[in-house]
Amino acid sequence: MDTDELRQFIVQKRELLSRETFSRRAFNRCENMSDEMKNRYVEYLIERLENAELDNRAMKLVLEDLTKELSRSNRMLEKLNESQSLLEEERKSRKSLEQEITKLKEQLKSARKQRFGSKKQSVKKDDSGSDDDPVDRENEKDGFDGTDESLDTRSIPESETQESHPSSPNPRDLCNRPDTYRTMGVNGTPVRHLSDLSKVPGRILDRKMVKTFRLDICLVEEQFEMVQYVEKGRKPRWGYFPKEGHPQVVTRFDGTKISPGFLQAIAYEVYVKNVTFGLLHQWLVDMGMTVSENTLRNWLKKGRKYLDRMVVELKRIALEKDAVVNCDETWCKVRKYDRYKKCYMWVLVNKAERVVIFFYEDGSRGREVLTNFLGDAELKALMSDGYNAYVFIGDELKTHRYKDTDHQVCLSHVRAKFVKARMEGGDKRADVFLDNINRLFRFEREYDREMITDGERTRRRQGLPTMEVMINLRANLLQELKSEEEQKSCYMREALNYLHKFWNEAFTYIKDGRYPISNNLAERAVRPFTTKRKNSLHFGSDEGAEIAAVYHSIISTVKLQGRSAWDYLGKFFTGIFNGCRDFLSLTPQNIDLAVCQ
Predict the structure, then answer these.
(1) How far is it, in rounded angstroms, from Cα 593 to Cα 597?
(2) Which of 47, 303, 503, 523 is least buried, going by the fewest C-beta atoms within 10 A?
(3) Residue 22 has pLDDT above 70, yes or no
(4) How many Cβ atoms from other residues are within 10 Å of residue 540's Cβ?
């Protein structure tokens, strides 16, 4: 049925409705008709009525067909809309997966660079960040399945002929030094071996001393004769009564067989040279000593008993009123019953007092660890990285207890994120941020060279050059945050969000000349512990980690003060052995004045 027929049906329907709706004057159509005409007229009306009924039934059928067609079209439209929604979700999912793949590729490139490349925070201006990833032979081995197609040998350099690298005719002897090289020496009085001049076969023209160096390492077993005696009216007792020229006391700590010098040596080997207990034990056995590894640990535990008192004194100095401190943390693996758990060691540094404190706190990384250690200390400022700032410190510094403490975030961490965005992400827009941040660090180096006062440093930090750099940084930051996300690498987004989140904390340092610009001091202090972790792999217990924290606190403090860790450990244990318990006089800055050496 076409459109014209449908329109005709509708016109007829309207005509019928109009006849039923509007009343008309009565009209006798059969008037003046003959019977034959009336019969014919009736037949005509009957035929017309039948045709109308047929038309009505046809319209109903057409309407039903149209209704079914409309329903089918609606269902198809719904399916189309649903398909479009699914397609849109699929596009979003694909876009998200593409971004995730790009991020993973950037992370893989970063990981390979960290493994094979330099870790310096420097950027070459001609580096587009699109260099090929470093080739890893281990990846080549994993991808090789025995077929020629899977064989990759890019990590193997091509063989070079001897002519391409001709050898020098006169190789330089790096051990050869001129006779005027006089910087080598040993503290103390040298052992002199003089010549017998009577054996000289000719006339003597000149004499000089030739230096050589000999290392004497030996273990000596000392035996002190103990005498059991009894005095009238008393119980028998044991005593040592030295002869002339022999030690006046038995040189060992109570409950052990170790002398102060031996304890100094093993503490230095384990916590300064980072020698493992296994290697230390093997070294002593090779030198002829019979001892167990557990005994060595117990001896260090004995020394820790006295060093604990020293750490308490150092903590009091580090957390004095209006102190400015840096803090950081690193992980360590500690054995817990039948498994190993990843725990955390914290470090706190007071640059002004040159004190370093390590604290373990059962390896917890809970939010209360740092604030529990600080206690009621009235600090002027506290420096950390962004993660520790957000997780451990942020809410606590808003409380009444720390309301007067300024919280700082390390600007070196901000720079490191833009370096990563430039090197691994290949985003050249990071250059403008790096240039401005590097200018701030150049200002600080100039202040250090000029050795200006804290007040002058504050004035210059708040001067026009620093403000100009901050304005440029802020303007570029806001502009990049408004740009499209697709144009930025994941590392660039991370760097921008980091700087935006911790903007105020990163530039708190301009308020006071005593405030540090970065947390590098704490980062450097934690490195010896990181080396110890890599060598020893794990601690056997929480107590072992606590002992390490105590020794590293003392040794790092001594190093920060520019002193010898070997000399200090020797003087400290000797002073303890001689009965000194004035730990303030035994601190690294005062031990040379102690009277119990």
Answers:
(1) 9
(2) 47
(3) no
(4) 14
- The pTM score is 0.74
Give CA–CA dist 195/192, Å, rounded: 10
Tokens of 197: 């001049």
- 492: enclosing H helix or E strand: helix 490-501
What would the mean pLDDT of 508-536 be, rounded to a whole number?
A: 90
For the chain, give the mean pLDDT: 82
Are 553 and 311 a contacting pair, CB within 8 Å? yes
In 3D, which of 345, 392, 386 has the Cα closest to residue 372?
A: 392
CA distance 154 to 136: 9
pLDDT of 307 reads 93
pLDDT of 161 over the 70 cut: no
Q: Is 441 exposed, middle or buried (0-12, 13-18, 19+ CB in 10 A)?
A: middle
- Burial-class residue 536 by CB neighbours within 10 Å (0-12, 13-18, 19+): buried
Q: Tokens for 316?
A: 């009091």
Q: How far is CA 174 from CA 29, 171, 179, 577, in A?
A: 139, 9, 14, 46
Structure tokens at 593: 């004045």
The dihedral of CA 169, 175, 178, 179: what is its sign? negative
324-336/237-240 β-pairing: unpaired
Q: Alpha-carbon distance 330 to 480, whole Å?
A: 33
d(CA 519, CA 420): 18
* CB of 472 closer than 8 Å to CB of 465: no
Tell me what pLDDT residue 441 has: 94
| Alpha-carbon 226 to chain mean position | 57
Residue type, 147: T
Instruction: Decide: 9 and 2 in contact? Cβ < 8 Å.
Output: no
Phi, psi of 409 (to 5 degrees): -120, 140
- For 229, the token pair is 């005696």
Q: What is the pLDDT of residues 94-147, one digit of tens each?
A: 888 887 887 787 777 777 666 665 556 666 555 544 445 556 666 666 666 666
Determine the pLDDT at residue 597. 57
Query: Reduced to 3 states, what is the DSSP secondary structure of residue 324?
Result: strand
Give the alpha-carbon dihedral of 485, 487, 491, 495, to 10 degrees.
-70
pLDDT tens for each residue of 463-504: 999 999 999 999 999 998 888 777 778 888 889 999 998 999
Tell me the three-class secondary structure of 156-219, residue by residue.
CCCCCCHHHCCCCCCCCCCCCCCCCCCCCCCCCCCCCCCCCHHHCCCCCCCCCCCCCCCCCCCC
Amino acid letter at 274?
A: N
DSSP assigned state of 515: S
